[in-house]
Structures are given as C-alpha cells and as structure tokens.
From TrEMBL:
Entry's family note: Belongs to the AAA ATPase family.
Subcellular location: Cytoplasm
Organism placement in taxonomy: Eukaryota, Fungi, Fungi incertae sedis, Zoopagomycota, Kickxellomycotina
Top-rank taxon, per record: Eukaryota
Role, per record: Required for vesicle-mediated transport. Catalyzes the fusion of transport vesicles within the Golgi cisternae. Is also required for transport from the endoplasmic reticulum to the Golgi stack. Seems to function as a fusion protein required for the delivery of cargo proteins to all compartments of the Golgi stack independent of vesicle origin.
Domain AAA+ ATPase as annotated: residue spans: 53-200
Protein's UniProt name: Vesicular-fusion protein SEC18
Amino acid sequence: PKSRMAKSLFKPNFKFEDLGIGGLDDEFNRIFRRAFASRIYPPSMVEKLGVQHVKGVLLYGPPGTGKTLMARQIGKMLQAHEPIVVNGPEILNKYVGESENNIRKLFGPAEKEYKEKGDDSQLHIIIFDELDAICRQRGTKNDGTGTGDSVVNQLLSKIDGVDQLNNVLLIGMTNRKDMIDDALLRPGRLEVQIEVGLPDEAGRLQILNIHTSKIRNNGMLENDVDLLELAELTKNFSGAEIAGLVKSASSFAFNRHVKVGDSANVAPDFEDMRVKRDDFMNALNEVKPAFGVADEELV
Ligand code: ATP
C-alpha cells in the first residue's frame, strides 16, 4: 500500500536536541504519539487499528511556555507546510459574517491540495492561538452580536469536515482551558488535550542552555556564570521569561561601555563585553515571573 506522506516525513538525521525546546520532552512525545505517529503509515494500516488520525489537539497552560514553539518545530520535523497561525481575537471581526469567512479561508489551502493530490498531500497545520477568545461570547445571551456563537459553530463544522481530509491538523492553544467550549473538546475534535506548564529546574537549565548557546559559542559568556545557579534562581519563570532574562543580561554587558550621555564613539573593550554573573543578577532584578509569585509570597 501507498505510504501516506511518508516520503515527506522526518528530516534525515533529526535530533530532538536540535529543536531548541527545553524541558518538554514528555509533552512533545505525547503530541507526537497522539497526533503525528499514525500519519507515517498508509491510511489502510491506520484503519486496521480501527482508528482515524487525530484531527485536533489542544495545548493549554500559562503564556510563554513553548506551546507555539513545539507546534512549529513538529511541523518542521515532519516537513509539513509552514503552519498557518491565527489568533482568536484577530479572527473576530465586527462585520457580521466576516469572522466565519476567516475561519473558512483557513482550511482553503488544505482542501485544495487534498482535492488535487489526495493522500499524497503534505500535512497542513493550523495553529489557533488564544482560542478562548472566540468561545467567550458563546452561550451568553443577548450580547448583541452573537458573533462568538456563529464563529465557534463555523469552526466546529470545519473540524467535522476534516473527516474527509487526511492532511489537516488543528492545534488550539489557550491559557484558559476552562473557557473553551465543551463542544470543541469532544472526541473527533480537539480530542487530545495536553497541559504545557511552567518548567521545573531541570527544564529551566535546558532552556538557559538553549538561550545562552549563541553567546557561549561566540566566547562571550564569562566563566563565572553558573547556569545551575540561574536555574535555581528562576523558579516560576516561563521559557519566554528565561529568554527575556538572557536578553536583559546582555543589555547590561553592552551598557558597560555605552551609557546615556556618553559620546557614541567610545572604543568598546571586547573583553569587558562578556556577559557575567553580575549581569544576570541585575537582570534578575529586572525580569520577574508573571505567574506563581503571589503564591510564593503567601508562604
Ligand atoms: P502564548 O500562550 O503566549 O502563545 P506559548 O506557550 O505559545 O505562549 P511560545 O510562543 O512558544 O509560547 O514561546 C515564546 C518564546 O519563548 C519562544 O519563541 C522561545 O524563544 C521561548 N520559549 C518558551 N518556552 C520555551 C522552551 N520550553 N524552550 C525554549 N524556549 C522557550
């Protein structure tokens, strides 16, 4: 039997480490097993196991934890089309009917390719960020627009229609799983739900390693920087906040030579441009985690 998409799946010599995702091995493996592994096999084989490809996944958890990063990197790994990323609030349009139209258009390229190539079509990943935004209005009476309702309905009808398409995967994301309409979470829709939480210390160490790798490889990370120590000090930081911390530390290194009021042509001393432990300590005063701090202070 013809191997569906197999020829385009997996970049040769693929390694998880190369994806630049820290501390999410379990989550990544779960998404892969639930939503992608079956796509390597021909449809006849998948049917033999009495299943269908999963059409939708919901990734939920605090902002900046790597949800979008994972979705994009899985797409790259499988040589899928560049994912289409849409944002809930953007889809909502004040013009009646436009939001529904926007939803319909999202699926257009996949539908077209499937018509032409059938199971030889490449995978189309549609990432729906801030999915909760379109659910917010559903069921609330007399809000004047009813927009949320019809947008969710349009999305539901599109997802249900994906039965006829083997080349689409919808990945919804939210920080508020409780806001997501139950109808969207039923089997056959966004049926796989995976929590992506804040990284633990081991995860933070991996993320610190990833985000300092460039400075380190360029010889610009001072030896007194201890990533293990920083992993301990960044409790409750998300991946995005750790990335922000590294940027802040670099800015302190730059600032050693160019301060407000200095003439712009100071000759920088490159030795002194290295990012040091002190820079990270200054950065820790500047970049604070958005989540979990309140709980911490109560203790
Ligand atoms: P949002 O809910 O705000 O959309 P998200 O969970 O989708 O957040 P991303 O957009 O994936 O977050 O993360 C933003 C950036 O933060 C990434 O591009 C990356 O630089 C960094 N980052 C976040 N999590 C990780 C991680 N686990 N490993 C490495 N980098 C990370």
